[in-house]
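Hi support team,

I'm opening this ticket because the web form for multi-chain structure prediction keeps timing out on my end. I have pasted the exact lines I submitted so you can reproduce it. The total is 425 residues across two entries, so I didn't expect it to be a heavy job. Is there a limit I'm missing, or should I split the entries? Thanks in advance, R.K.
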Amino acid sequence: MKIKLEKLEVQTRKDQELVDITSQVEAVVKKSKVKNGVVNILTMHTSSGILVTEGLPCLETDIINNLSTLAPEGSGYFHNRYLDIDGRVAFNAPAHLKSIISGYFAFFPIENGKLIKGSRQRIYFAEFDGPLARNYCVQVMGE
Amino acid sequence: MIDFHTHPLLVREMIKKHPDLKRIAQDIFYIRNNPQPLETFHLELDVSGLERAVILPIDAYTTKQCRIYSNEQIAELCKMSNRLVGFASVDPHKKNAEEDLEFAVKKLKLRGLKLDPSLQEFYPNDLKFMTPIYSKAQALGIPLIFHSGMSWEPKVKAKYSQPLLLEDVAFEFPELKIVIAHFGWPWVLDSVMLALKYPNIYIDTSCLYFDNPKDFLGFVMTKQVPLSLIEKSLRHKIVFGSNYPRVEIKNMAGAMRSLGLSEQCLNLIFSENAKKLLGEAK
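Hello R.K., no limit was hit. The queue was backed up. Here is the completed structure from your submission:
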């Protein structure tokens, strides 16, 4: 069985946004030459996510807005304190909570070298605390 | 609009060229976030609605055996971005430090001076010791920004950074424009008194020591001092600063805009006062 891992970077450009990474994932699968197997996609950060939804700008806006309703900015977070591991005050608990809600990974089967996914499904890197240069992993396993 | 207080410590391109900057950022300045491309800095300004940022070094060679960016490195970074305004720093313990300042301003084209009395371990009101540097800064017509108040760095004492120590400097060098960084927190009222009294003293807003930017700035600028005082008496004496990357610019800018200050006052704080300090406006 082949196992191929690629670490990719995405430059997010806004405070919060969904970046379509479907073509990047497909390119890694193609490059791996795996015909049958699975692909895992995961973010390397706890204030971002990987999610799968229909590729429509209106839906992207709705997702960001509704996640902000579920995890609003505010004062009541214990995370709002000095974090010596970073040398600064942490105040991005809403971004961490959105990351949990959206999930940190997605996976798809691979058949005949292509992702098995619905025609409307797109894979997104979800930024909840940008703009930042972010990293995500694409791991392809199979034969 | 200008962010008057940033440190370019996490700029990836500079760390690639000067690898020791990463150790200095982590161990001396004590910021541990991952390096980011310069583009992230620009995007951070964009999402904050700002055009430019002042980038600050600290020459702590005598006390910490390092420069948290040298003046040459600041100039190098400024050549990579026309959105960055470079300031110099000099080591007060170095003989003829004022000559380094003159070189930085005249040859490297840096536009202000940053000193951190806590990291550099000197008392700003030790005029016998500091007069050559203050005189040179005054003669060059550049602003001098002092770290003031609490420091995050370990093994660094706040006793050197009490804003009241700047009164002698303002008094003896009336043409020298002085900026008290971080609102001088926790000595906010001392900082406000100095800015009220001395025409050459300004305050920057780059303070966040607990909670979040909105709550903290709200505490400082509406409770420790009334907002009306800022609106009526200090609107020409405050400049916006974020202290990026210890705090994202977007969060500090959003917090400033949420306080309830008038548009005219916000324009002064975000733009006009900084331009005046930089000699771009009268």
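A quick check on our side: The CA atoms of residues 82 and 129 of chain A lie 18 Å apart. Let us know if the file doesn't open in your viewer.
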